[in-house]
């Protein structure tokens, strides 16, 4: 029995690791796909295409899978609206606009600020959330990491394209951080994947509306094989595959460990961007990323310590649980 139990545990561990790798690769390469397609497709329209494909595939999947996939309650509808506006529509619009001015690695690193920014909104929106000096230092380190990436000289020139890109991608991270905390306040019963599928449908409509308001048109698209591949990549592996894999990872590993993809995604994006697009990885970006990771570690030190104890087979403190983590959010 012990041997069978050990084999089952090892098999489960391999599946969890596989989901972690798939999720990291899917979300990480999304940044590369976005960057590759921006030369041929207007940015906001491109984001709309991503959600068109993702919504159709995910809605088909959740319908086929069955279960609680349709919004039935007021809480479900509110969750879909919050996720559709903040976690998908607004964040994608800002991300695609911002990536015009940044390398994939820099954009992914700025985007990894989400778990550093979320506690700021949690402090305001969640009365039970409190943090002290260490958490404040962690948040400040996250912001310092951004300053390191941008550079002090660039900060004085707001017309600088890098500053513009960081502001837009940073705005996308803020939208997701705010939306994830707001989402944690909703009383939803719908599955996370079902909520995401409907949210992508709502986001697709919103993003296409933004695109029209900005004067974008399908006539502005340069029809190339590269553009087609970019659209299919961000719509299928980077969305339709990424989200089921991500929620599967949450089910198996819990949100604490699942949230670690926030820091593997930039590594994937930076590496693949360098290989596929010939982008240069700057020392400043690497250093800034390390500072952001340290900030995250300070904010989530108790949860990280609990995970270390669990991995060593030791009991975690009873007051610690996965509910400390804000509602899980898309990573790319």
Outline the fold blueprint.
Elements: H1 2-37, H2 43-65, H3 74-98, H4 104-111, H5 114-125, H6 133-150, H7 152-155, H8 161-184, H9 192-213, H10 225-258, H11 261-277, H12 283-299, H13 301-311
Helix pairs in contact: 1-4, 1-10, 1-11, 2-3, 2-9, 2-10, 3-8, 3-9, 4-8, 4-11, 4-12, 5-8, 6-12
GO cellular component, one term: membrane
Protein name: Putative DMT superfamily transporter inner membrane protein
Main location: membrane
Description:
The structure is a single chain. The chain has 332 residues and is mainly alpha-helical. It has one domain. It has helices spanning 2-37, 43-65, 74-98, 104-111, 114-125, 133-150, 152-155, 161-184, 192-213, 225-258, 261-277, 283-299, 301-311. Residues 320-327 have low confidence and may be disordered. It holds the Pfam family EamA. Keywords: Membrane, Transmembrane, Transmembrane helix. This is Putative DMT superfamily transporter inner membrane protein. It is found in: Membrane. Residues 16-150, 164-299 form the EamA domain.
């Amino acid at each position: 029995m012990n041997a069978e139990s050990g084999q089952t545990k090892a098999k489960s561990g391999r599946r969890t690791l596989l989901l972690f790798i798939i999720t990291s690769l899917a979300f990480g390469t999304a940044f590369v796909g976005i960057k590759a397609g921006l030369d041929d497709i207007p940015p906001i329209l491109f984001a709309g295409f991503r959600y068109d494909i993702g919504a159709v595939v995910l809605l088909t999947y959740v319908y086929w899978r069955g279960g609680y996939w349709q919004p039935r309650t007021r809480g479900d509808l509110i969750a879909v609206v919050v996720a559709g506006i903040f976690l998908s529509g607004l964040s994608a619009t800002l991300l695609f606009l911002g990536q015009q001015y940044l390398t994939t690695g820099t954009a992914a690193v700025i985007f990894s600020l989400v778990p550093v920014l979320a506690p700021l909104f949690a402090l305001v929106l969640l009365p039970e959330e409190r943090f002290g000096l260490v958490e404040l230092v962690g948040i400040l380190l996250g912001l310092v990491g951004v300053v390191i990436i941008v550079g002090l000289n660039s900060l004085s020139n707001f017309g600088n394209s890098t500053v513009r890109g960081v502001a837009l991608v940073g705005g996308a991270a803020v939208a997701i951080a705010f939306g994830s905390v707001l989402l944690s306040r909703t009383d939803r019963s719908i599955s996370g994947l079902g909520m995401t599928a409907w949210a992508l449908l709502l986001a697709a409509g919103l993003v296409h509306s933004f695109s029209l308001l900005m004067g974008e048109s399908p006539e502005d698209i340069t029809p190339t094989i590269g553009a087609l591949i970019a659209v299919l990549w961000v719509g299928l592996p980077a969305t339709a595959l990424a989200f089921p894999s991500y929620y599967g990872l949450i089910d198996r590993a819990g949100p604490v460990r699942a949230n670690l993809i926030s820091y593997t995604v930039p590594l994937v994006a930076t590496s693949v961007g360098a290989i596929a697009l010939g982008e240069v990885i700057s020392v400043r970006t690497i250093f800034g990323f390390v500072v952001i990771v340290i900030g995250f570690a300070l904010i989530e030190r108790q949860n990280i310590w609990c995970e270390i104890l669990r991995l060593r087979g030791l009991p975690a403190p009873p007051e610690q649980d996965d509910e400390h983590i804000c509602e899980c959010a898309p990573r790319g």
